[in-house]
Amino acid sequence: MKNKKGLIILSSVVAVCAVALIVSSVIDWPVSSDNAGGNIGKSSRFSRKTAVEPISNMNELLVNDPSYKDGIVAANVVMLTRSQQYGVLVDMSNEVAGEIPAYADLLSEMNDLRETVDNVCSTLFQASDDINATLIGVNRPDLSQNVINSSLAYTTLQKQNKLADKFIKTTDKYVETAEADERLMFVRDQWVDYQMMSAALDGDKRSMAELEKKGTLLDAEQAVSALGSFAVANQVTLMAAANLSSVMNVSNSVISIFPIQMIDGIFRIIENSATEAIRNVDAETINNSSDVLNSILIGNLVDAANNQDFVKAMGWESLNRGPKILDNSASEAISNAQVLFGRPPRKIESNTESGFFGSIISIGSMSEVMNSFGEVSTSIRASAQALNMNEVVLSSQVGEVIRATADGNKLNIVF
Amino acid sequence: MGKRIVFLILVLLPGLALGQNQIYYQYKADDVRLVFFDKNLSRYIPHMVRMFENGKALHGQIWTSDSVYVSQPPLLLLTDWEDDGNGGATPLPHNLIQIGMAPLNMSYYVNPSAERYRQLFCHEYTHTMMTDKYNRRDLGWRRFFGAKVSVDNTQPLTALWSYLTVPRWYAPRWYQEGIACFMETWLGGGVGRSLGGYDEMYFRSIVDGGDKLFSVVGLETEGSTMDFQVGANAYLYGTRFVNYLTKEYGYDKLIRFYNRTSDSRTFFGSQFKQVYGRPLRKVWNEWKEDEKRHQAENLAAIREFPVTETEPLTPEPLGSVSPLVYDPATGKAYTAMNAPGSFAHLVEIDLGTGRQRKITDLYGVQLYNPAFVALDRNSGRLIYTFNNARMRGLEVYDLHKKKVVTRKKFQRINNIVYDNANDCLYGLFSNGGTQTIVRLDRNLENPEAIYAFPFGVSVFDLDVSHDGQWLSLTRQGDNGEHTLLLFNTRELAKAIFKPVELLTWEDSNLGQFRFSLDDRYLIGSSYYTGVSNLWQINLETCEPEMLSNTDIGLFAPLEIAPDRLLALQFERDGLRPVTLDRKVVEDANAVTLYGHRAYENNQEALEAVGLLKEPLPKVEFGDVYNNITPYKVIKEMRFAGAYPIISGFTDTTAWNRVTPVLGYRFCFSDPVGLSSIKLAVGMSPWSGNDWKNKFHADFEWKYYFWTLKAAWNHTDFYDLAGPRRSSRKGYMVTLAYDYTNSLVVPYTRSWGFALGAYGDMDALPLYQEIVVDIKSMQTASLYGKISKTRTSLGGVMKEQGFELGAQGYGYLVGGKFYPSLDGTADIGALLPIDRNTSFWLRTAGGHNFGDANTVFGNTYFGGFRNNRVDYRNAFQYRTSLAMPGAGIDAIQAHSYAKALAELNFRPIRLNDFGALFCYPTWIQCSLFGAGLSAWNPGMPHQMYYSTGVQLTTEVVFMNYLKTTLSLGYAHLFAPEGFPGGRHGNEFMISLKLL
């Protein structure tokens, strides 16, 4: 009896197991097929995506707050101009000191940095492009991130300003013992200008005074001669930096060479070209804005070369070799640029724009902002004078915008 | 005299500006007002307003069943005072929602979150609706008082008025947080604690371990203090119970239970019975049974496949623990831990022997991840964060020198990790709601921002590869999705800002990922299956693989040797370090979330609740941004209610020397509470005092750090009961400045001064028994205090540290100045004999420089100094003027020195004792002995001794009204010739209200 009972139980267990085995193949087994690797169940939970309005408020700010717009755009102009200037000065340093052993280590360091300079410019172009697009009503979802990146990129480059000091120091030492050519001394003076603006942006009056004391090695006549011997693209970049110094009232050796009216004249052409370009660019063609601008700008520069005396002083007669290309296509514009400026556009990763033209579009398409930037600077300057303050105030403010954008705010709060 | 007072006030008026050294800003609309402190935050205000409007609109659809209620525009207070985001809400005296704008702390993914401000407003506005919503009866009381009445402990009647105007504010924490977590989840697309893996894990660990689930009263008493999660249990249990109510009885009933409607009951417990037809306690017990069934099913499902074996490194869980860091050269791991009964500290764990060694104390810890810890293996240094609940600082402990070598305050950097390849520290800098990856050199100097995220992006769990080339972190998306990001540090150095998006999980978390030893994988944890298991992500293929099938939860894995992991295993009492093999698991079951069961039974309702029926009108950026104006405190002051009061006044003809005074108090304040005025007027025509002492007026204006008080025949409620007397005849005008700085936990520094003018007094301001009859006198005081005190988890008082204070006080009477100086120094320590048991030595000394023959040239001691009914700290015997056993002010000393030794025993927690509206939480016993050395000119030196015992118990009424009942006895040993005799006995009974 007892054995019989046990047999029944055992049979039942076997039967249940058999049924379970069969049924398990057709019913939903607890292991979910929605898995990450093997038969790994994913926990069920209610989930609904909610359409969230983009949090980025930078685009809304640009549209709603003129002073914010001016600040961020002015900062971008400053960063871009200076990054361009840095790159050009590295190139020029190579050109004039490449064969001098005393500069070998320094130039090696500078050349290691060349890729970074291009990346910085590329990042700044992207931000400029996004700002431009936003200002004409095109939504750029990555605007905030790209503007932050541009400030970070610029800050990255600024960490290498010590190389500028090294170049100045090396040259000062070199000229004590050797006869340096004017081009070398000109580049050295340009690094001084660059550092003068660095100090102004940091509000570092002490460094400014020290740089002022170092002064320039060339007089005006020598400087004109030296400047004219470099590629036109480099000349224009240095003029852009000089223009910026002028707006911000920071001393600059190029300004001492050329009357500011002359530099203004060149930049009026650039600005007018940009304004014209903006008129020709709408939301649909924004991605080609740089091409449009390039075409217009080159045409206008050629016109200027034909008609303006000051262009001769710059050694820009070579512009006459180029055709008038106002109505040409963008690709032609790029190839003409190569002819005009004697070297191919700098390679920029993920960016088809040449460094030079990128710079132009950023400054040019912000011409309106540049004007207001000038107004802002004028008014601040007036206030500063009234308060018997130095113009460093304005420069410091731009520096502050850059730092604040990069850091989210300031590091190291002190209570 | 009057002229002198006016002159004094005029001289000090410019100083008022010292208090207001910061400009506040506001955005004000019809239905909301937002106040913030930094103009730079203006750009974020439109987003805040949009998220608030969203939360408000969603709630507006839910709590509609009573037409009486018109929502009051809340004040949104946006702050950036902490590095971890947070929120808070109160209906008193105005509706206020405070938003700490930093990203939320994502440690252990305790709080699943979608876009943080959307979630915070959904959660916090629930509190506003639950506590502010009124029916006709509540409205009647609010109209009668002119406002909602805040509880003021100097006037206990206000507790009653407050209950009448906001009855649902007086409900337990679990009640409030349960519905708020429920709403944050269902109004937030399913992301929230109702569907949270951590909650599920916590209750699974209780059931698996055979531990008890707290009763509804026990949760408030024992549950809020016993385990490492302390107050967070209210969130966990509340959410669980609300899920249960929804699952079993439906969504509609839940809303009826919480909704304050015309037919609802005032007390939440009665309302529960009305809606569910049974007492709350019974239904709570039913939930406990259901929870056990649910967890048993889940545990069975997990165990259908082999459960991953782990090897514990410590005999017990360590409470709250931060992810471990490890030094393979020494075989030692390090972490920050915080467990009940001891103070938070850094601990070293030897992986070979399991031996634990306390390294150093940690100050200012967070609940789940006490502090962020990084290890500099090259130099043998631990770098960790302190002041974690506020603005974090960084501290460096040198393992060789065995001491803290660097301390930097207010760095605001968290998620730190040390790059041993390049000798630098990475971390996330938090400021103004934004986050930035920063790098500091080995000396924690030269911070560099290397990547920054726009406002609104939340990132966490930063790690660096062993070769220093890669940084990884998790980014949280707007709908709670998690993405693992990789940054190439070499590219960042070259200004290439292109993070790699490694893997995105839409509705599962990706947490605490760290690089494998060969830097080919990231190993972390996720609640993908509903259980926090370990996962690895192949950096080349981006394929995730599961590394564990644990029954409770595993976190923060770290590969310590090839294919061997160090991790943290969750248990009911915290996290325990374990080791396990790194082996890919192919099969594992998912668990069912309790909240999902609630959803399955209420699918239609819960899907509809988070959807707006009507699209919300767009809040235009410019409309908000361009309408931000300065917040002017004085201009914003408004009438804030008026209510009847009762208080006591000295009356020598009465049997108890006190007469009752009936009066009315009028209140004015600005919405933020930076400036408030209270004016009370009263009369006592029935007293035996002169006619001029039958009228009473008290005026108090608090403005930032300043307090201006003026009174005529000052009254005090507590004079009605007990020996202590604060009321005084005559007039008084005082102006005081009190500044306290507690920015860095656990330090507090305070200082202040006060000037006062008194006239027609019957007793000295400080000494009730020292009768004077003078026309006028002036006083001046100056004090400074510094303290560093700590309370361990589960403690009810300060258990360790020191408190130092110094005070100068002076009377100017009849052209003579009577100065005195006093100092106090208290030092205490937690004893190793039992948890929460402490010993304190409290000392005091002082000297009067004035003429000892006048009452102004002495200090007076005596008594426990508690009133029968009181509002001050229950432990009055600790104050320097107390001398239990002697009468109040009975011992006179021109100079004195005093010491009191005190042994405070562990408080006994009570579980499930009392009723829903009234329950004791703890009982505690203290023994003390004091010695007082008194010097009086022309008299021999006198010694007084006192010894006694005090039993103290906390009793909570209506969940928010905490009272403390104290019983004490002391015996005094006095010297020969003491007027009260050589021996004195004193029994003390005191009820501290509110």
Can you tell me the CATH topology of the largest domain in chain B? Neutral Protease, domain 2
Q: Can you count the beta strands of chain B?
A: 52
Please trace the helix and strand order of chain A, writing H or E for each element.
Answer: HEHHHHHHHHHHHHHHHHHH
- Give the tally of structural domains of chain A: 1
Low-confidence stretches of chain A: 23-35, 316-397, 407-415
Strand content of chain A: under 5%
CATH class of the largest domain in chain B: Mainly Alpha
Number of helical segments with 4 or more residues of chain B? 17
Shape of chain B: globular
Verbal overview:
Helices cover 70% and strands 0% of the residues of chain A. Chain A is mostly helical and 415 residues long. Chain B is of the alpha+beta class. In chain B, 18% of the residues lie in helices and 39% in strands. Chain B has 17 helices and 52 strands. In chain B, α3 (45-62) crosses α4 (116-132), α10 crosses α11 and α10 (233-249) packs parallel to α15. Chain B is globular and about 90 Å long. The chains are: A mainly alpha (415), B alpha+beta (994). At the A-B interface, β1, α2, α5, α6 and α19 of A face α3, β18, β19, β27 and β31 of B.
Keywords:
heterodimer; A: 415 residues; mainly alpha; disordered C terminus; B: 994 residues; alpha+beta; Neutral Protease, domain 2; Neuraminidase; six-stranded mixed β-sheet; 39% strand; globular
Topology:
The complex is a heterodimer of chains A (415) and B (994).
Chain A: H1 2-26, E1 39-40, H2 58-64, H3 66-97, H4 104-112, H5 114-135, H6 143-158, H7 162-177, H8 182-202, H9 205-214, H10 220-228, H11 232-247, H12 253-257, H13 260-279, H14 289-307, H15 310-313, H16 330-341, H17 355-364, H18 367-386, H19 392-407
Chain B: H1 2-12, H2 16-19, E1 24-28, E2 33-36, H3 45-62, E3 75-79, E4 86-90, E5 96-100, H4 116-132, H5 136-145, H6 157-165, H7 173-186, H8 197-208, H9 218-223, H10 233-249, H11 251-258, H12 268-276, H13 280-302, E6 311-312, E7 320-321, E8 325-327, E9 332-338, E10 345-350, E11 356-361, E12 373-376, E13 381-386, E14 393-398, E15 403-408, E16 413-419, E17 424-431, E18 434-441, E19 448-452, E20 458-464, E21 470-476, E22 482-488, H14 489-493, E23 500-505, E24 511-515, E25 521-526, E26 533-538, E27 544-546, E28 554-561, E29 564-571, E30 574-581, E31 587-588, H15 594-601, H16 603-608, H17 621-625, E32 628-631, E33 638-650, E34 658-669, E35 675-683, E36 695-703, E37 706-714, E38 728-741, E39 747-759, E40 776-790, E41 800-813, E42 816-830, E43 838-848, E44 859-861, E45 869-870, E46 891-893, E47 895-904, E48 908-909, E49 918-935, E50 942-957, E51 961-973, E52 983-992
